[in-house]
Amino acid sequence: MLAKIWKKLLMFILIVACLFNVVTKLVKNSSIEDELLSSAQYIQDQQDVEKQENVIK
Question: Is the pTM of this model over 0.70?
Fold first, then answer.
């Protein structure tokens, strides 16, 4: 009887861990996308500033 309970408990923990892993990866993907967009915007802004400085000179 105790062996069946442990098997079910361990299976439940395994399923929860897998779901947590999947959700974590999905959340991190959107964060990485946000970081890449932010970096691209920063680079674009720096290039715009350099162009403006070259025009002024």
Answer: no
Half-sphere exposure of 6 (CA within 13 A, CB side): 3
Q: Which residue has the tokens 């500033």?
A: 49
Instruction: Kindly state the tokens that stand for 20.
Output: 């947590």
H or E stretch at 11: helix 2-56
Secondary structure (DSSP) of 13-42: HHHHHHHHHHHHHHHHHHHHHHHHHHHHHH
Residue pLDDT, tens place only, 24-45: 888 777 677 888 899 999 999 9
Q: Which residue has the tokens 């892993």?
A: 21
